[in-house]
Amino acid sequence: IGFAAPLLVLLLRLIQGLALGGEYGGAATYVAEHAPENRKGYYTSWIQTTATLGLFVSLGVILLTRNLLDKNAARSIEIFNAWGWRIPFLVSIVLVVVSIY
Question: Which of 42, 47, 50, 94 lies at a C-alpha separation of 20 to 30 Å from 1?
Answer without folding.
Answer: 94
